[in-house]
Amino acid sequence: MKFLNICLIVCAALIANTKCDDFEGVKLTAQECKDEVGATDEDVETMFKHEPAGSAEAKCLHACVMKRFGLMNDDGKMDKEKATDILKIIASGNEEQESLGLEVLETCVDIDVDEDHCEAAEDYRVCMHTKAAENGFTMARV
């Protein structure tokens, strides 16, 4: 089961801003962020596999992509409104999954996160991954 994590929110953000079949656009954004933060191709691959960030650069990759799509503000906090909009897009009318996803967001959007934005991105990923595992929220579309 694929759990909600930062990568999935990132992918959802990309879907919200590009056509669903525009995976090249998704990869381009990840590549731009990879270059910006000094991440590796492996870090990008790990992100797309929905796995935990294994390095500081991988965490910064997540933060960069979140910021590019307005999911993380200048204070390193998640934008609840944007995350909710994206969740509705990826739920694709599945009311049960939308409800479970909103529960995940409600739990995690206002958690205390590290002041470092890269660490904050990982804090959000861990919270959402854990909550999704508890409540059964999946992201099959992404």
UniProtKB/TrEMBL annotation:
SMART domains: PhBP (SM00708). Residues 1-20 form the signal peptide. The keyword Signal applies. One of its GO terms (cellular component) is extracellular space. SUPFAM superfamilies: Insect pheromone/odorant-binding proteins (SSF47565). Gene3D superfamilies: Pheromone/general odorant binding protein domain. Keywords: Signal. It holds the Pfam family PBP_GOBP. GO terms for biological process: sensory perception of smell. GO terms for molecular function: odorant binding. This is Pheromone-binding protein-related protein 2. It comes from Ceratitis capitata (Mediterranean fruit fly). The gene is PBP2.
